[in-house]
Write a structure and sequence with these properties.
Blueprint (H helix, E strand, L loop, with lengths): L2 H8 L2 H13 L3 H5 L6 E2 L4 E5 L8 E5 L2 H10 L6 H16 L6 H15 L2 H8 L14 H21 L18
Antiparallel strand pairs: 1-2, 2-3
Helix pairs in contact: 1-2, 2-4, 2-6, 6-7
Length: 181
């Protein structure tokens, strides 16, 4: 059972909508708390998020599952302070995971998942609303594991192509790097 299912089963509608919105948007807690029903487009399955860290007024459109768009449109807003929202997140993550998790961890998980599945740094930067690529680097922690996984896939393709030529390539085909002095 996932955290969102757990909260849906045992918590209030407000609590699971808060956690689902954080999970499916990668938005900051303050951005989620500022949402109104006018920010939800059920037909387009998207929400409009006012980017609160920008110095000028800026919005981003985030696609979300249609069921979440319907629920948010009907819900009417969270009407919570940041402290109240933090307490809700802490309460449910502590009950489910055995340790508290900060709301920003949902944003980080979303960014990491998005980068891992799409491998599109520009998409991650735009959806999360980062001004520069510097901030997207924090979502690249996974890269060594994924790099090895991607290389394994690439080697399989190369080996399949080379089977036709009766040659197998592995790591021993590449010269060892000489240590730099």
């Amino acid at each position: 059972m996932a955290l969102t299912e757990y909260v849906k089963r045992y918590g209030s509608r407000r609590d699971w909508l808060l956690i689902d919105t954080l999970t499916y948007t990668g938005a900051r807690i303050s951005e989620v708390l500022a949402l109104t029903p006018d920010d939800v487009d059920v037909e387009a399955s998207a929400i409009r998020i006012k980017q609160l860290k920008k110095r000028k007024e800026a919005y981003k459109i985030i696609p979300i599952p249609r069921w979440l768009a319907r629920q948010l449109a009907e819900f009417g807003g969270f009407h919570l302070s940041r402290v109240q929202a933090w307490r809700i997140i802490r309460y449910w993550t502590e009950r489910f995971l055995g340790r508290p998790v900060r709301p920003h961890a949902f944003r980080h998980a979303y960014g990491t998942y998005l980068l891992r599945t799409t491998k599109d740094v520009e998409l991650v930067r735009r959806i999360l609303g980062h001004k520069s690529y510097h901030w997207v680097q924090e979502y690249m922690d996974y890269s060594l594991y994924d790099l090895q996984e991607d290389l394994q896939k690439a080697w399989k393709v190369v080996n399949a192509l080379n089977k036709k030529k009766r040659r197998h390539i592995d790591r021993t085909d590449f010269p060892e790097e000489k240590p730099s002095k």
